[in-house]
Amino acid sequence: MKALIAAIAVCIIALTNSAQAETFGRVIEVQNVHSYAYVDLPENRCYDVSVPVYGSRNPSSDDVLLGMIIGGALGKVITGDNNGAIVGAFIGGVSSSGNTIRVQVGTRIERQCEKIYVQQRVPVVTSYVITYRWNGNLYTTETNDYYEIGDQVRMVPQIQ
After folding, report:
1. Cα separation values, 10 from 4, 17, 19, 156, Å
2. Could you give the CA distance from residue 73 to residue 77 in angstroms, rounded to a whole number?
3. Angle CA(142)–CA(146)–CA(150) in degrees, nearest 5?
4. What is residue 60's DSSP assignment?
5. Cα–Cα distance, 56 to 100 (Å, whole number)
6. What is the 3-state composition of the chain as percent helix, strand, coil, each rounded to the nearest 5?
7. Distance CA 160, CA 155 (A)
8. Chain mean position to CA 14
9. Contact between 75 and 49 (Cβ < 8 Å)
10. What's the CA gap between 121 and 45, in Å, rounded?
11. What is the pLDDT of residues 75-114, one digit of tens each?
């Protein structure tokens, strides 16, 4: 009787192991499953800008005269005396005659670019639908694992 129970147990274990044994099917088709996401993508935006061009010139007689008038007025205000006005006019004239004057002589067009981020809707792979062949039959399943055609996919066939 013990021998019969042992034989039945061996048969049950063998059937259970063969029913749950790992087998491999060969992948014959892979399809991506997409959803959409919004991402910020960089983009260069360029435009033309008018930029001033500067040069220098020597002061004119009008500039010297203006320096003398301002210097004379300041000398009179500071000292309250006509002699102070004369000294201020002299100093204002001399100082304005020795300086070159920076002036805008024109403009030029300059290309300026900046990187901005633009939100765009893009497809994103979320999973894969694979079709594989096992034991002469075709099976399809959805998975998060990536497979290529020809790969082997592990499966556990169920006895029904």
Report:
1. 10, 10, 14, 21
2. 6
3. 95
4. P
5. 6
6. 35, 50, 15
7. 15
8. 60
9. no
10. 20
11. 767 777 766 666 666 666 666 656 666 778 889 999 999 9
pTM for the model stands at: 0.39
Query: 20: which residues sit within 8 A by CB, 6+ positions away?
Result: 156
Q: What is the pLDDT of residues 61-75, one digit of tens each?
A: 666 666 767 777 777
131 versus 66: the higher-pLDDT residue is: 131
Alpha carbon distance 63, 122 (integer Å): 65
Contact by Cβ (8 Å): 56, 100: yes
Contact 110, 67 (CB under 8 A): no
Structure confidence by residue, pLDDT tens digits, 112-130 = 999 999 999 999 999 999 9
In order of 61, 68, 74, 156, the CA distances from 64 in angstroms are 5, 6, 15, 101
Extract long-range pairs of 61-65: CB within 8 Å, 24+ residues apart.
Answer: 63/96, 63/97, 63/101, 64/93, 64/96, 64/97, 65/93
The token duo for 65 is 């005269």
Helices (H) and strands (E) in the chain, counts: 3, 4
